[in-house]
UniProtKB/TrEMBL annotation:
Keywords, alphabetical: Cell cycle, Cell division, Chromosome partition, Mitosis, Nucleus
Main location: nucleus
GO biological-process terms attached to the record: cell division; chromosome segregation; mitotic sister chromatid cohesion
Superkingdom assignment: Eukaryota
Compartment(s) of residence: Nucleus, Nucleoplasm
Record has Cell division as a keyword: yes
UniProt xrefs under InterPro entries: MAU2, TPR-like_helical_dom_sf
Family: Belongs to the SCC4/mau-2 family.
Gene of this entry: MAU2
Organism placement in taxonomy: Eukaryota, Metazoa, Chordata, Craniata, Vertebrata
Listed name of the protein: MAU2 chromatid cohesion factor homolog
Gene Ontology CC terms, in alphabetical order: nucleoplasm
Amino acid sequence: MASNVEAPERWYLALLGFAEHFRTSSPPKIRLCVHCLQAVFQFKPPQRIEARTHLQLGSVLYHHTKNSELARSHLEKAWFISQQVPQFEDVKFEAASILSELFCQQNLVDSAKPLLRKAIQISQQTPYWHCRLLFQLAQLHTLEKDLVSACDLLGVGAEYARVVGSEYTRALFLLSKGMLLLMERKLGEVHPLLTLCGTIVENWQGNPIQKESLRVFFLVLQVTHYLDAGQVKSVKPCLKQLQQCIQTISTLHDDEILPSNPADLFHWLPKEHMCVLVYLVTVMHSMQAGYLEKAQKYTDKALMQLEKLKMLDCSPILSTFQVILLEHIIMCRLVTGHKATALQEISQVCQLCQQSPRLFTNHAAQLHTLLGLYCISVNCMDNAEAQFTTALRLTTHQELWTYIVTNLASVYIREGNRHQELYSLLERINPDHNFPVRRFLRETLKMSNAEDLNRLTACSLVLLGHIFYVLGNHRESNNMVVPAMQLASKIPDMSVQLWSSALLKDLNKALGNTIDAHEAAQMHQNFSQQLLQDHIAACSLPEHNLISWTDGPPPVQIQAQNGPTTSLASLL
């Protein structure tokens, strides 16, 4: 040993080198890595080395083992010791950040919050960590559904970023706040905020990838805002900009030059994740507009991309994207008359939710709603009612609640003997029912036409056509049913096609058009046969037993059954 000063450096660097070698081996040798780091304490190192080693041990144990108690012990020591060492910000705040993550994982949120608050309080001279910890605490509040506290923190972050001269991170804070305000339906606050964000994003001159990623974030919020309002025609310019923006990003190379302002050291999402997100909002648009083949095409592209990404990346957001994509494509399948495929995809959602309790908590109501829709499609009305009742119990989301209740009302209508329950539901959906139904349908038709909502237009047309037929106004009925059939074929919507062809058969028969009546009857027969075959295929699948699941987490294994449990005749 040359000197007492050099000795600790040499043994420390040697042990650190061994630990890193074992950690990055393929496969990683975590036990040997931990042994090397623990050996550091045998040399009674100075506080700086002691605190850093506790952080390294805590991080390795947290990320690579299930020994959360030992990880917690090391991280708590790192946090405690580092506060006594001057100018030791990175170790101090990284320890606080990882320790609060561990607390959340152990459902000790009440321990994570004060830890983050203290770290935020003492990090004001360290812009990167101050901003990162503010984002982290805001995320924690968001996961707890405390969006007001989360918005407040994001507002604090935006003002801090402005003061330290980081317009880029200011925009990230403001866009994140805008996202939460959209979730809260505080539309009056969203408009001025998005306008401000648009100005900041356009004026900011910096790393091209960071600028384009801000633009993607901004446009995703704009597009989802339009789609929430059902404005699928008005959103098209924004959606086109978003698609062009993601194409621009995919041609840019990542710039290795770090920003000069440490507060700018943030990325919203990796490029690959942004690509999937743009596919996702495109699917949402296609679904609402009634371009179901286009929705299926983009879903297939997005799911292929996700499968590739998940081989290398275990980020939870990828599973969330996958579930939302599957939820949309399942609804497409049910509309286009592919129930068996829809059921298998519902089972895929169940499997994804089994792997993540948080994912299941966030999507349980949607999952039971989808099962309810499937049950309607195969005429299992008792199961449909049970699924929708379960979904209502699990949701606090107003739009989803309304959607579930209207579908439950359709179950009562189909059953024919549930008048009292139906009237009670209708009272809850629309207490003010002073307008005649025909006016409602005319208004629906007017609104859906204005925004190119093809499915809503087709459904409104066929229902109006049916009403006119019952009233004996055959000419007006024909004027409604023919375009309904054309639109339903374009979507394609199997139920509306079946309904329209039945009406056309009866209409032409009443008008004495024998050839047209025969042609419509043949179409109706073809649609019926397709639905019947798909019905048999779906009810024969082992996944069909999911219709009985109404409580707890998704069943792990689904037993096969002998065959269909519902009357096939009820389909016709």
